[in-house]
């Protein structure tokens, strides 16, 4: 039975613009609980609340909502890893991995991830809390996190809403958190999902270079790399093809010679075709020979489940949004999900080049929103009338000067301990698994650090952990990665 053991720090309050709701600037609420993980009982302390962000003049400019799980009964926290966890968006709260993947509680959903009423949470028997402590951080305007604006002044969005601003203030916040919680000696990891992949690539360099905080691991879950994602370039189009193969295989739309094989048997050939045949063909544009174009389109049809005709009509450049609309158009009339293509949608009209809505996201919001609001109030005991932003306004987002991939490379080069794990779902059509592999390849063009990069794939989508089988497997992969990236007394040198 959980017990409230304390409310500490100040209950300073500020008034949100256009609202009478009040929330503390700097406070913690602590509860205790237990969870059975891998058959063993793990006791833990859950600390939730608000921690400020300060500017260079020592003024509070924001307060971030967080939840920190720490295993109790551990004698030496210097040897116990801590993981700093972010979701993406940008503008998404740290809710998805918090109550569906790594934390001690998970959603009440079915084994494939679909909502079940009554909504709520249950113990997560696969949580990594047995091997690492975790803090879930909500960036500005997500969760209960909010900017602090003096009366009569306007919000300076450039302080928070952009690739570089985001990593700068979050790195500073993490420094304060690690200091307050006496975790400087602990092995440290950062994990980010989707846009969180961009975020943690940037944080790896910012933490190391500006906060002097060295990491053991960077974990990217279904990462969004905006050096390639939605650029409209030849690489962007070509590397989506293996995802088309996976989704078409799931919906039984491939020709028999491929459909009758296991998914993992056919993906290597699709990857090879994408890089060595499709990419150079698309790069030739309108100057490709007709005979080559037709040959490539025919093979692409085999690997995608789309007709050769529509592929040629798209000049080999088939966008994921068109694929979601087209794959089942003539079979069932359903669309397929963007973030998880196992999900089906229903559009007003069969005609069109993209779905009316994201069928998977509406399903997820169906179960996550009531669960997180219940859990925070009733189990973590953080009570406020401020709205919990599952998605918050962070626009316009400044994507300029995106050098996070290079930042990660530099951090790895300077820190021999640092290793990288990428986890992706084969049915993720938003940040496809093969684009994640491409990001790994391009992060270190020299190839001198390739033995420090690891990739794991799963038979689900963007949030692969919603499928129970992958929830167990993905958490076990995290355990293995943490174990192999610990220093074990070895010096940090080449």
Q: Your description of this structure?
A:
This protein is α/β, with parallel strands linked by helices. It has 13 helices and 17 strands. Strands 1, 4, 5, 6, 7, 10, 11, 12, 13, 16 and 17 form an eleven-stranded mixed β-sheet that branches. A two-stranded antiparallel sheet has the order 2-3. A two-stranded antiparallel sheet has the order 8-9. It is globular and about 65 Å long. The chain starts with a strand and ends in a 9-residue tail after the last helix. Residues 1-20 have low confidence and may be disordered.
Strand content: 15-25%
Tell me the number of strands. 17
What Rg do the Cα atoms give?
23 Å
* Termini gap: 49 Å
Give the helix/strand class.
alpha/beta
Q: Could you give a short account of the major beta sheet? A: 11 strands, mixed
Kindly state the percentage of residues in helix. Answer: 25-40%
Query: How would you state the average pLDDT, rounded?
Result: 93
Element string (H = helix, E = strand): EEEEEEEEEEEHEHEHHHHHHHEEHHEHEH
Number of separate helices: 13
Work out the oligomeric state of the chains in this entry: single chain
Low-pLDDT segments, ≥5 res: 1-20
What's this entry about, in short?
The chain has 494 residues and is α/β, with parallel strands linked by helices. The chain has helices spanning 163-180, 195-210, 234-238, 241-250, 256-259, 263-283, 290-304, 308-313, 320-326, 359-379, 404-414, 433-443, 468-485; strands at residues 3-9, 13-15, 22-24, 27-37, 40-54, 60-71, 82-86, 105-107, 121-123, 133-137, 146-147, 188-193, 217-221, 335-336, 344-345, 419-425, 453-458. The chain contains 13 helices and 17 strands.
